[in-house]
Amino acid sequence: MIGQHSRDYARFITASPSSYHAATEVARRLEEAGYRRQEETEEWDATPGGHVLVRDGAVMAWWVPENVTDLRFAIVGAHTDSPTFKVKPTITSNRSGYTSVNVETYGGLLPNSWLNRDLGIAGRLMAGGTEHLVRTGAIMVIPQLAIHLDREAGKGIELGRQQHLQPLLATGERELMGDLAALAGIDQSDIDGFDLVAYDLDEPAHVGPDDEFFAAGRQDNLLSVHAGLTAFESLQANNGAVAILACFDHEEIGSGTATGARGPLLETVLRRTAAALGVADEESLQRAFARSSCVSADCGHAIHPNYPEKHDPDHTPLLGKGPLLKYNANQAYTTDAKGVALWKAACREAEVPTQDFVSRNDVPCGSTIGPLTATRLGIRTVDVGAPLLSMHSVRELSHVADIRAMAGALAAYIATF
Question: What are residue 103's DSSP bridge partners?
Fold first, then answer.
């Protein structure tokens, strides 16, 4: 079942060990497809065709049709970040004869899944006001305590986030920043700041006798980012809407940043695009928002065959059976009847199936960028996503059919809305 699309997805994940790399890779590919790079400090470009902007670990793209009448936006929202460990300002410490890397947890990661993995460091260095992306090979590991030293480990392990999750770097005393500077081709003394995270070096893999499963890290939510990217790469014409790809950072920690969904970035892109198209007054802009919609694309949960009791018995989505419509009565997801109709129309157009996901009443669900976007802008929003197993693990499991279906449904939504 391995196809060109899932191979391309694997390459995208490998190229995106951090949100900064993911945003850069999206922009690079869109520029190769003919999109023009937009700097925020320059006059806004809303000429027909594609445009792309990168701010830190977020990336925004917009595609303007030849003739825009009754301005409306067709928005695909996603996020570039994933649960991981972030390197602390004092990078290393020495204890018990070893050098360890000082990290803090980022997002709701599953700590035990990071044990005994070959880990690298990726992110950005700032030197002389210039950003330098950097990534290492396998340079650190979080070794698990042997069962001989913890006879109760077979019953489960408790990991203290300060004491037990510091990656091992070297024996003796070892400095790390010089190695990172060398990888970036800069002098260590020129480094003024950094944003660095851990990532697992295992390559994506197709699993199963028919290669139907896809195993990789960071699928939540690079799967949705890649689906949106491929839809925008091939975009030539649509039903008259200005298409927007909004890939935010910091969703895993609540989105409350300048590049998160609580921030102004998407609204800024919409307002500046509207103004460049001649829609400058607030009344006309609000009418455009009322004609617009947003598909918030973030991965959801497939039923786990070893833990069926954790799922609602009447809503049991499976891997390989299509993207999810994500429901929550308390609006952790924004899906309502009109949003359902919007998404099902796109899926019919793309000829892909869709499934319903809702949590058990006694197992609270997470949330995503959908409610934040809807609240900030008042734009009709629906929450969808491909199903996963092992979400927030260092290595998650999806299905190649769902990867293709997600991309097809987003492309259909953009083309037909």
Answer: 87
Q: Burial, 326: exposed, middle or buried (Cβ in 10 Å; 0-12, 13-18, 19+)?
A: buried
DSSP reduced 3-state for 279: coil
In whole angstroms, give the CA distance from residue 412 to residue 244.
Answer: 14
The whole-number pLDDT of residue 234 equals: 87
Residues forming a β-bridge with 191: 127
Residues 6+ apart with CB under 8 A from 379: 73, 75, 289, 292, 293, 294, 373
Strands 73-79 and 168-171: unpaired
Whole-prediction pTM: 0.96
| Cβ 200 vs Cβ 395: under 8 Å | yes
**CA-based nearest residue to 400, from 258, 211, 188:** 211
Residues of the chain where predicted confidence (pLDDT) is lower than 70: 1, 153-154, 237-238
H or E element in which residue 119 lies:
strand 119-127
Query: Looking up tokens 């003796």, which residue turns up?
Result: 172
Q: β-pairing, 36-37 with 49-55?
A: parallel
Task: Determine the pLDDT at residue 376.
Answer: 93
Q: What contacts 58, CB < 8 A, 6 or more positions away?
A: 19, 23, 80, 247, 248, 249, 259, 260, 265
Residue among 413, 225, 388 nearest 319 (CA): 388
Q: Quick check: 136 and 180 in contact, CB under 8 A?
A: yes
220-256 pLDDT, tens digit each:
999 999 999 999 998 876 678 999 999 999 999 999 9
Which tokens hold the place of 99?
A: 């050098």
Q: Give the separation between CA 319 and CA 338, rounded to whole angstroms.
A: 26
